[in-house]
Amino acid sequence: MTEKINRKRQKKEKIPRVAMPEQEPEKRNKNFNEVTLGYTEEDALREASRCLQCKNPECIKGCPVEIDIKSFIKLIQEKKFDEALKKIREKNGLPAICGRVCPQEDQCEKVCILGIKDDPAAIGRLERYVADREMKEIAEGIKECAWSEVTKQCTREKIAIIGSGPGGLTCGAELAKLGYRVTIFEALHEPGGVLVYGIPEFRLPKEIVKREIDYVKSLGVKIEVNMVMGKILTIDDLFKEGFRAIFISTGAGLPYFMGISGENLNGVYSANEYLTRSNLMKAYKFPQCDTPIIRGDKIAVVGGGNVAMDSARVAKRLGAKHVYLIYRRSEEEMPARNEEIKHAREEGIEFKLLASPVEIIGKDGWVHKIMCIKMKLGEPDDSGRRRPVPLEGSEFNIEVDVVIMAIGQGPNPLLTSTIPRLELTRWGNIKADPITGKTNIEGVFAGGDIVTGAATVILAMGAGKSAAAAIDEYIRTSIW
Amino acid sequence: MYKIVKKEKLVEDIDRFYIKAPLIARKAKAGQFVVIRINEDGERIPLTIADYNRSNGIISIVSMRVGKTTTLLSSLKESDSILDVVGPLGNASEIENFGRVICVGGGVGIPPIFPIARELKKIGNYVISIIGARSKDLLILKEEMEDTSDELYICSDDGSIGYHGFVSDFLKEYLEKNLTGNADKRKDIARVIAIGPALMMSAVADVTRPFNIKTIVSLNSIMVDGTGMCGACRVEVGGKTKFVCVNGPEFDGHQVNFELLLSRQKIYCDQEKECMDIYEHKCMLDK
Ligand SMILES: Cc1cc2nc3c(=O)[nH]c(=O)nc-3n(C[C@H](O)[C@H](O)[C@H](O)COP(=O)(O)OP(=O)(O)OC[C@H]3O[C@@H](n4cnc5c(N)ncnc54)[C@H](O)[C@@H]3O)c2cc1C
Ligand SMILES: Cc1cc2nc3c(=O)[nH]c(=O)nc-3n(C[C@H](O)[C@H](O)[C@H](O)COP(=O)(O)OP(=O)(O)OC[C@H]3O[C@@H](n4cnc5c(N)ncnc54)[C@H](O)[C@@H]3O)c2cc1C
Ligand code: SF4
Ligand code: FES
């Protein structure tokens, strides 16, 4: 009883949201080690104690996969860390990843009741804490790797998954748990999708992605890399080889350019290329690794999302003196996670807001300057954000040697163009039921960015999970 | 891992590798390529599928030593393995009965033109092949080309074999001789397919333009993934940006902006040299 009162009193004292320990900006912008260092046990307990354990918690509804947040935080309060992790894993198979990259401020933490008057509970950081804690304990031999012995023989029908991003991995894991023989086909030489080729090491260490993938494999999922589906095998081949259902989660991998003059000059990259060179191909270790990348002195990054932030921060780490982030709206409209924007600023990225490139000017075939025009915000557009309008005659030049276009990605038509009867949207995304993932072709399901357009890790996972349930039902009932 | 089942040295600096890759062999068509990565720290580089055998699951590639990765590749021996081989990538060549066609191959462009010439001939075309190298000792696949061509012409830059000059010079003379003058003696050429260094393809396109002969070239831009994901391989064709790996590699040579291609091929010159110097130094120390 007294304990309860104590705790209440404590809450009245208002413990401030526990800050995340981080590498110093001036140090970290020169290395590729993880920026955020993670909570200590003490930090985690203190942060967890801030949670109000609401009778009608909003946080759960804010989570796209409905993690029982209230309960897992309660378990942390009680120092039952393993159980807290188990609670999360009931709904989310990749907690170490989601704790790091989910836009919590737009999801669970946005609606957290504590957030009405105070800062919301740091749900993402707590999620990461319990996941990292287990990993550390396994590494130190304190805890046995619970799943290494689980590696099991799946015996049910064969299911094929195309693409090994978060959508495909989740769908595969869920189906394997149900006993299906799952094969994931991946085009690149490494599984993980954007988690390995896009999001940089300093934000999501590849060791963590690898571990989560090992977990999926331990469930019995086979992953075949170097398989560009549509080229090496078509979906008809898969059906012929006895796969009973196919889940397509090939992501949004097609880089967009602006269509302005000078975009093919040497030194202009798509963010995809820049990040793939640096992350997947480890160009930041050149010449120890063979893949080169241009290390400019002055680099312009165009865009305002996570992809732009990641590119800018990689550029800084590769030694650029000036990295300009050119975005056509204001900071408020930036789609990137708040934390990434904050980190980018701290690391010395120079924001050129309300500006949009009109031309890239070259010299001897190389980028020399980027010409921009100033913008002002007009009426809100369809997305509810205020539409940027160019201010006539306000052009200005910035001298740069590298330009990185991070203005968005679309669906890659490589696979879909080999399935002419598959229904697509006007933009080339696959038309699929938002819950079941069913497409217009019997036995073919789809989910993740290839359906929704570029979105988030957790939404792709959610799609993979609900498609797995639908695939199971389809196989059991044969009803389409 | 993809096993090298056989290796042949064709001439100094050029090797042919036979690689076990059954799924690729099953699907490969003339004109397509693979992307390979030799080891964990390696770069991904594209190489044309020079041939494929569907029944034994073996593909062959022909690689010329020009830098670190191709040098490393040439150091591999029979029964060694290549870490990653991805394919078949790119679009297949258009194989139809066009009538009379000319296949032009320069240097390492000869191996990729070979399966195309063979398929064109198989389907009934009259195949005229013009192949060239810097000199006699560097000429590859002469016998194979002989077998698949109705007429074969050989050129060398130094005159040590065949016509003394570039393949494009020979082509020009050939076209002038056969396409001008007496109308009933003319034998129209339905198309020209040219594969080789960018400069050669550009020269061929210039030669055929005034004759209005459809000319197909296979572009060798720098690539990373080879699946349309990065845009490293972009070129301009007819004023529009195209990705070589998915929209090509073959394009209408009269529409290609070769100047841009040549410029983009040189993006990493300095780094490539650095990488190669370190590698050579290391090899020397090892010896
Ligand atoms: C740089 C960057 C930063 C991001 N940051 C965040 C973030 O902080 N938080 C967040 O929530 N989201 C972030 N996102 C978005 C998020 O990563 C994606 O929404 C998510 O990865 C989508 O998952 P997916 O499974 O649909 O596809 P992807 O992760 O794109 O995976 C698709 C996979 O399919 C493979 N594939 C494609 N075509 C074929 C084929 N024909 N055959 C075989 N395989 C194929 C691809 O190689 C790839 O591995 C970021 C994205 C990028 C690019
Ligand atoms: C579709 C296609 C098919 C090809 N087929 C063949 C072939 O059958 N046989 C053959 O010998 N060569 C072929 N090439 C060229 C071959 O890819 C390059 O010679 C090779 O990448 C050089 O790598 P390197 O590390 O040895 O040399 P480097 O020193 O790295 O480069 C030498 C030159 O090769 C080019 N190059 C470098 N890296 C790449 C890359 N990642 N992708 C493409 N080009 C690059 C550049 O123009 C560079 O200046 C092909 C290229 C393309 C695009
Ligand atoms: S809404 Fe916030 S305070 Fe309430 S239970 Fe959820 S995390 Fe705790
Ligand atoms: S090589 Fe990446 S898009 Fe062509």
Mean pLDDT of chain B: 92
Query: What is the first-to-last residue Cα distance of chain B?
Result: 27 Å
Radius of gyration of chain A: 23 Å
Shape descriptor of chain B: globular
Query: How are the strands ordered across the major sheet of chain A?
Result: 3-2-1-4-16
How many β-strand runs of chain B? 17
**Strand tally of chain A:** 16
Q: Helical amount among residues of chain A, as a percent range?
A: 25-40%
Q: What's the overall geometry of chain A?
A: globular
Largest sheet of chain B: 7 strands, mixed
Ligand set: flavin-adenine dinucleotide, iron/sulfur cluster, FE2/S2 (inorganic) cluster
Q: What percent of the residues of chain B sit in helical stretches (DSSP H or I)?
A: 25-40%
Which structural class is indicated by helix and strand composition of chain B? Answer: alpha/beta
Uncertain segments of chain B are: none
Describe the structure.
- The complex is a heterodimer of chains A (480) and B (287).
- Chain A is 36% helix and 17% strand.
- Chain A has 20 helices and 16 strands.
- Chain A has a 5-stranded parallel β-sheet.
- In chain A, helix 5 runs antiparallel to helix 6.
- Chain A is globular, with a radius of gyration of 23 Å.
- Chain B has 9 helices and 17 strands.
- In chain B, strands 12-11-10-9-13-14-17 form a 7-stranded mixed β-sheet, with helices on both faces. Chain B has a 5-stranded antiparallel β-sheet with strand order 5-6-2-1-7. In chain B, strands 4-3-8 form a 3-stranded antiparallel β-sheet.
- In chain B, a hairpin with a 4-residue loop joins strand 5 and strand 6.
- In chain B, helix 5 packs parallel to helix 6.
- The radius of gyration of chain B is 19 Å and the shape is globular.
- Chain B starts with a strand and ends with a helix.
- At the A-B interface, strand 5 and helix 15 of A face helix 1, strand 8, strand 15, helix 8 and helix 9 of B.
- Bound molecules: flavin-adenine dinucleotide (2 copies), iron/sulfur cluster and FE2/S2 (inorganic) cluster.
- The site of one flavin-adenine dinucleotide has 28 residues of chain B, from strand 4, strand 6, helix 2, helix 3 and helix 9.
